[in-house]
């Protein structure tokens, strides 16, 4: 029975192997044949073969290697049937062999881990930003095209076009399947990280829909970051990105109540935060901030760690948070960073100080469709007792917000300030 071990539900086994090994399998096949479409097709055929073979003969003890062998046979059969295709791939393979040395033999050579090359191929700067994210989710996270489309709220046909366009660009531009050299890596790595992080942010704070969070997306992003960290263990910004996501995701269970309604940071039951995830993230923050000037992800992770270490909102080290935002703003000047810094200043120095900073950002185009901006203004105006102005800002935020829990929260706040009279005291100072 192929040296197979204990029986397990075959469909579940294939799903588990596919999720864990698909990226490695696909990367190994692209490395060998130089064609992403071919690699995807024979990977799918190998999985189909497993669904036929494994129920009869059992799950192999090395299922990833079994799938790789099967996929290679499928590829050879396909190339024998299509000599034109084979000739084109032969040219590509020669170019790949010249630019990328063969992987060393070793214990894992049956299924080499070449996902790092695939990361850099999917995130190549020649590809459009949306196409990079789509291709990374399709190839490295293993999401289907409809799943990628749902993740970013576009029709499946639109997402399919993006993926086809990205593959065509890789093929026609002869984008090499390789890890950049040491001189190129600093310039290329941020692009890879910028592909992974938007996946997490959409999972942490969904842009629209009935739920506040898309936990499936957030967890996929963390899985991708873990792969990157294993492959690039000395890159501090990789550690910083993984730390940031872990420290934020640790609060996931406390961010909504049993009815799915939004729970603000100050009201969250911190006993429901994932302490093991916080400990892991905090350790990675030290890695990210040690050995040279900090990067943007390391600084953001340090801010998240301060929130996670505090006993409550009042006990947060707001001077340190503001100082870190100062560093972040110098590294990545952005109105969104400036918005977050203004909120931190409001916690340190009072709502009037924060409101003045927010008003300075009123002309920023990037904040016009960004609902956290009017929501933050509304909250500070409410705390100052300026209820009519707060109501107007809450209405503006309601026009922009996407998810049902955030909409319900803003509606409750609007009802509060509309019910408050002009002589009422501020709700908070």
Automatic annotation (TrEMBL):
Keyword terms of this UniProt record: DNA-binding, Sigma factor, Transcription, Transcription regulation
Domain RNA polymerase sigma factor 70 region 4 type, chain residue ranges per copy: 122-170
GO biological process, one term: DNA-templated transcription initiation
Domain DUF6596 positions: 188-285
Pfam families, A to Z: DUF6596, Sigma70_r2, Sigma70_r4_2
Iron is among the record's keywords: no
UniProt xrefs under InterPro entries: DUF6596 (IPR046531), RNA_pol_sigma70_r2 (IPR007627), RNA_pol_sigma70_r4_t2 (IPR013249), RNA_pol_sigma_r2 (IPR013325), RNA_pol_sigma_r3/r4-like (IPR013324), WH-like_DNA-bd_sf (IPR036388)
Domain RNA polymerase sigma-70 region: 18-83
GO molecular function: DNA binding; sigma factor activity
Stated family: Belongs to the sigma-70 factor family. ECF subfamily.
Name of the protein this chain belongs to: RNA polymerase sigma-70 factor, ECF subfamily
Species of the source: Rhodococcus tukisamuensis
